Amino acid sequence: MTTIDQHVQDLSNGLNGELARLRENESYYDAEHRLKAIGVSVPPEMRALLAQVGWPRTYLSSIEERASLGGFRMAGSSEADERLWSWWQANFLDVKSGPAHTDALMHGRAYATISSPDEDDPFSDPESPVIQVESPLHMYAEIDQRTERVRRAFRPYVDPAKPGEDRGTLYLPDRNVYLVDGPGGWKVEGEDVHDLGVPLVVQLTNRYKTTELYGRSEITPELRSVTDAAARIMMDMQAAAELMAVPQRLLFGVAQEALAANPDDPASVIEAYFARIVAIEDSDAHAMQFAAAELMNFVNVLQELAKQAATYTGLPPQYLSFSSENPASAEAIRSSESRLVKKTERFCKLMGGGWEQVMRVAMLLMDGSISSEARRMEAIWEDPATPTYAAKADAVSKLVAGGIIPVERARIDLGYSEVEREQMRKWDQENPTSQLSAILGTGMPKIPSAMVDSSEKDQAA
After folding, report:
1. Measuring CA to CA, how many Å separate 231 from each of 20, 213, 376, 393?
2. What is the arithmetic mean of pLDDT over 138-146?
3. Which of the chain's ends, N or C, has fewer CB atoms near its CB within 10 Å?
């Protein structure tokens, strides 16, 4: 039987082994200074000119901004489940899910923990479980290869009320163990036994292959390479601009000290150099000027690198600020975003599976069981595409008029929330026309075609 110390040791080793890679992912996302981005041959004096390129952040943010969850629907139901959505809102997951999705894109995974309602928290809903999101920088979970679910997890932390003490929570299938690190190792400070058979932790995984149980970062090696190359090119462009973008003037027959305000001060001589004046002592005094350096070659290289980044990521040209052959029309813009939209839809499916599992574990904690409908739960995502509101309204109006979809489906497609649709249904019931339709039959009374034809003839006349 595995002891508490062995659990903590195994999971701590897994976390520490991943930290270097995770921090590198974070450095690319945050566009922080990276020595390998500029190479070992670059003099230290030029490293201050390194420009940070934020293509990874642009890519990840473009996907995260389009991934918006709108509810959960049980199997066999046409409406979103109000109870699960109330749990989502009570835990502010409409706000917290964004950073969790960003972590999943950045590192390949994020975590969600579930616990019983906190009776001591005045802001906690006593009818809702407590759901928190965790970064893989601060938590590690071991995944079962057969079930692809969390087998055990550990989250170390420092209590602000007790600085200097390392604490941690160990998540096991039958209980949560609260630990404190002391001179003799980790000591059990308390535990919460639930006997549910699963740890109260769910991994939100972003992956490309079935073998990647711990997810894969969207900041791929090829995106890193073009990002580093762009950083070096921008640094070289700045160096060229500093030294050669402004025409340099030569004065023959004039000593450098004669140009300085204080000949004994080396700094004033350097100021003359930065003023693009180079003095050379010569008996034949005359002046000349070098032509300024052309910087368009750097711009062309940067545009080519941006095109390579667009190839790897599927970002539209306008996102990376380079021109394309497409005309600047609404249809062309939507066409250029098709690959990004499809990528977001795939990401939503992956995250939807994780959030569905979060809700199942929450139901198991609150109700003691999972209903058959909940086992086939569906996460409802908003449309990641960016059509205009007028275009969507025109499309759904034609579908409703043609009898292809009902009005309720049209309201869902237009992005109205469950609360807004419920209010609309009440307004429909209060509408006299709707009340008349309910009395007469299943739908609105139809006007005979003969009346329509005669009416059109009268208008024509």
Report:
1. 22, 33, 47, 44
2. 95
3. N
Residue with the bigger pLDDT between 275 and 265: it is: 265
Burial environment of residue 17 by CB neighbours within 10 A (0 to 12, 13 to 18, 19 or more):
exposed
Report in angstroms the alpha-carbon separations of 169 from 76, 96, 112, 176.
38, 21, 14, 7
The answer on pLDDT for 15 being more than 80 is yes
Per the model's pLDDT, the better-predicted residue between 44 and 148 turns out to be: 148
CA distance 182 to 162: 13
- How many other CB atoms are there within 10 angstroms of residue 152's CB atom? 19
Residue 29 has pLDDT above 70, yes or no: yes
CA distances from 203 to 70, 88, 92, 200 (A): 20, 17, 19, 10
Torsion of CA 308, 309, 310, 316, to 10 degrees: -140
The pLDDT mean for the chain works out to 82
What are the Cα distances from residue 6, in Å, to 182, 184, 366?
16, 14, 30
* Number of C-beta neighbours around residue 323 at 10 A: 9
Average pLDDT over residues 416-421: 81
Asked which of 68-72, 292-296, 336-340 is least confident by mean pLDDT, the reply is 292-296
| Integer Cα distance of 272 and 278 in angstroms | 7
Q: Which two tokens stand for residue 419?
A: 């609360």
pLDDT tens-place string over residues 99-108: 999 999 999 9
Question: What pLDDT score does 87 carry?
Answer: 96
